[in-house]
Specification:
2 copies of one chain form a homodimer.
Chain A (H helix, E strand, L loop, with lengths): L2 E4 L3 E7 L2 E8 L1 H9 L5 E8 L15 E9 L5 E6 L6 E7 L19 E4 L4 H9 L6 E5 L2 H6 L1 H9 L3 E5 H8 L4 H9 L5 E5 L5 E5 L2 E5 L13 H16 L4 H18 L6 H5 L2 H15 L3
Parallel strand pairs in A: 1-4, 1-8, 2-6, 4-5, 8-9, 9-10, 10-11
Antiparallel strand pairs in A: 2-3, 6-7, 11-12, 12-13
């Protein structure tokens, strides 16, 4: 089953102790697609400037990723810069040049309007609502957002949450959205708005899948070297949604496996800059790490 | 098999959003004993002032905890004060009155010198070394310490690490000791000093058990209300060492179960001030939460 993702396509400039990446491909829609495409076909809706060279994402074409929904607008592609601390879990944004992304009004191509699996990557929640208005009858809507929208447009974020099935937030966003420092009860407050599940991403500490009467937690895959955490959240979401779309199922085991596959893909993604690692990844690599996740969490 | 613990006996004054506890029993040795005693007999070595009223820890007598190694010295008992933030994972120390603890020179009673299971709670590492000199042939030495000793007496902490089998640190201490922000490789640096295992406590994010060729991770038991995290680390250690001493075994499954039992006991401890929760706890309560830990981490 195909997955539709609406999000950003960016050129990232990343600096940290391990090196530098200049104008390398990134953005939520591409990180998501790279990850989800291991499990399902993906249709991408986004925007780039006339300076965007599609050759740099040629690898996505071998993976059943349809880029026809990426609009090319007069101007420059969205650019983002980040500098990571020595503790790679922390970073500063060095610049944000929205460029053509500033006026992005996502139009969903007719061919995608019957999408059953939809991922609303982190964009303005008003646009996320407009995306949902264009989808006929989705089975599953998964939502990502960020602190910027929570603090500036909370009521609208809340509206999108109410129209989504699964919300993905990190721990800080969960606390900020609710004003509740206890993650579990904060999570339950978010569930009370209507979605079936909340996933709380905790970076190096893994992720939690919270349902009304269920709780599952998985660690991050242990890594001695994290080279570039950019895109970790979106590649997690890609693995998660991609797996669910492949299985066409939302039972307990499938959901839990999807969370673990998401974590596994994210763990590969952070081992190198941009898509360098995801480009080379094989299904066997993924499966080996999935089994390892089982081993390191199993009590006996 | 009995466990020997050498550590502090304190009267704590805790303040937070849920209330206040004044001069209530605490300290590493007592938190450890309360927890370990669910699994094994415990012998405690510590010091109190003449103002200490042993009646307030009467509950430990019903649990095979031998308090004969607690010396009573002229003066006042060690007192500590802490104030927790709205985010209960953060706290400030409001005062530290060492009192009789200032001159604590632990003498191990003859009856304890053949102890096979030893927990060195967080005290001056020079004293920890002196404790080890008085133990004849322990099977297992488990060590706790803190950032204060890591920054002020690192070389001596390193000596104690070399003479211990299992080290328990929190994530910040692990990073501080090694200067390495990556937890996994920092952990391996510590293992290279000689101990067989390192446990990294991560508060609300659970704990990691790291061996030379092994890795296990468990979440913290999910709680909607954490009322007082004081003693969480020591009650974790108590559950962990107590279980190992009962099982007299260090195989993979026993170690993993010990980590989970440690987490379970700590999760009860933080649900109320002082020992209020541990006093009432039953084996059935512990077992139920242990099974729940299995359920929330099991992929399928």
């Amino acid at each position: 089953m195909s997955v539709l993702v609406v999000g950003s396509v960016a050129l990232d400039t990343i600096e940290n102790q391990f090196g530098k990446a200049d104008d390398s491909p990134g953005g939520s829609a591409l990180y998501f697609s790279s990850a989800a495409s291991f499990f399902s076909p993906v249709n991408v809706v986004g925007v780039v400037g006339t300076d965007f060279d599609f050759k740099i994402i040629n690898f996505l074409k071998n993976r059943d990723v349809d880029l026809n929904g990426i609009y090319i607008e007069e101007g420059k592609t969205f650019r983002w810069g980040g500098k990571y601390h020595l503790d790679i879990n922390k970073r500063d944004t060095t610049f944000t040049d929205l460029n053509v992304f500033q006026n992005f009004k996502p139009t969903i191509p007719k061919a995608y309007q019957n999408s059953k699996y939809v991922f609303l990557a982190n964009i303005d929640p008003e646009l996320q609502l407009k995306v949902l208005d264009q989808i006929n009858d989705p089975n599953l809507v998964v939502l990502d957002t960020m602190n910027f929208w929570i603090s500036s447009k909370k009521a609208i974020v809340e509206e999108v949450i109410k129209r989504s099935d699964i919300i993905i937030l990190n721990d800080e966003e969960t606390r900020e959205f609710t004003g509740n420092p206890n993650l579990l009860s904060a999570g339950k407050e978010i569930l009370s708005l209507g979605p079936k599940y909340l996933i709380i991403k905790k970076g190096e500490h893994g992720a939690v899948l919270l349902g009304e009467n269920s709780f599952f937690t998985t660690p991050a895959f242990p890594l001695e070297l994290v080279k570039d955490p950019t895109g970790a959240g979106d590649s997690f979401a890609g693995g998660f949604v991609g797996y669910l779309a492949r299985e066409k199922n939302m039972d307990k085991t499938t959901l839990r496996k999807a969370v673990v596959y998401g974590s596994v893909i994210a763990s590969f993604n952070v081992e190198d800059f941009s898509f360098n690692k995801l480009i080379l990844l094989t299904e066997n690599d993924i499966q080996k790490r999935f089994e390892k996740m089982r081993e390191i969490t199993q009590i006996e």
